[in-house]
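[job 0417] fold request received: Protein kinase domain-containing protein
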Amino acid sequence: MDWEVGSRTLRPHEARPGDATCPRDLNSTACHSSHSTCRATTGPYKFKRNGLNHTTGYVCKCDKGYQGNPYLAQGCQDVNECELSDTCFGNCTNLPGTFLCQCPTGTVGDPSIRNGCIPPHDLDTGLIIGLGVGSGEIILVLFIGGRFIIRIIQRRREKRMRLWFFKRNRGQLLQQLVCQRADIAERMILSLEELEKATNNFDKARELGGGGHGTVYKGILSSLHVVAIKKSKIVIQREIDEFINEVAILSQINHINIVKLLGCCLETEVPLLVYEFISSGTLHNHLHVEASVSLSWKDRLRIAVEIAKALSYLHSLTSTPIIHRDVKTPNILLDDNLTVKLSDFGASRYVPIDQTGLDTTVQGTFGYLDPMYHSTGHLTEKNDVYSFGVILIELLTRKKPVSYRSPQGHSLVYHFMTLLSEGNLSRILDPQVSKEGDGEVVDIALLAKMCVKFVSKDRPTMRQVEIMLESIHAAKEYASSDNMTDESEESYVGANDLSVGGKSVGAARQD
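[job 0417] inference complete; emitting structure tokens
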């Protein structure tokens, strides 16, 4: 059977339209590609069958963006427009049946024409030049009006996002403060606008420091209070949870050796935290200077006492015990008088009084992390005790727990304990400590040994550590002022022989 199209005869293998109408065969893959369009016809086709003339049929055509034979099941194939010349002069992405043409990052304009994408400032300059040459008044009005409308749309969108973040973050905060003082969530809230103004829109020149997770900025509030503002660099749910957790905990704490949280901003995806400004950096920075002389031994001993007081307060004197979980020298701030301000409570956890601990995902800093907690995931107050013991070793040696390795490849804690047991403590002590210290250096070393015992139940509590440190510090003060009387010396010895785990400090010194 031949088809007549005008004066030309088509062979069956060329057209193969069949003898049915278009709608009935539209989904038949025998003669119709899935990427083609069928059109019914009434002429000029003419064919004979059973002696009768027929003038109806249909014609298939590949869809836009496809080419090939529409009468075959896979006959119409996608055209890669990105390989065609004069199609796209920007970043071209081929898509099924079409393509995406965009200006490269940092440029704007029309990517479908050559040199159509230019930097935004060139666009502004080009428009200004055009305004001066052509009938500029109309174009100027359109340009300014367009930018004004875009700015309004952007501001409305930002306002909606701020409101959404505020509702979500405030809801999370209130959940954390259930059965606590819920008014905290209201009286400590600051607006994003005020914090932007306080930091000159988070100017890089206002940066105080920070790590991989966030940056701290120095700011001046409208009340003229100088503050430190903590802003997260990354946006993940864990960061949001930690910031909310820190607000919930610090808003209920008032201690001279714990940094004071002044407020928070809930209008950003990750809340911003506003603290009292602590001027003299971290204990880590003071210890690990390049100079041979660092903090005096007298200051180090007092700082150890103040850290112990802060941790003892968290464990024993708050309504619900709090475990810091990331005790380390970078998280210990010092003010102008070198007074301790314990900071960074994002990882901290409440532990109900009727519980001995919590099973949690392990979190902390390598070198300070309790190995028993690392192996079991069971969080108790003794985890903080271990970390504090590491800090005592750091104060004695001026070695960095995170990076230190002995010649044999051992960690700071292991090497320190080995030398102490061998009676070779002087080999690892900071020369400044050996020079400025006295017998109390050995007492501190032995106390550190108790704190870093592997089995957590064998470690003292922070309250016991606090009492022992105060006793050692008091004896040092009396000795340095030549006021150590026989009576005060007896008082010191009695306090310093406080039993810990069935053994006194004095007895431990003999081990």
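[job 0417] notes: The first strand starts at residue 3 and ends at 5. The chain has a mean pLDDT of 78.
[job 0417] exit 0
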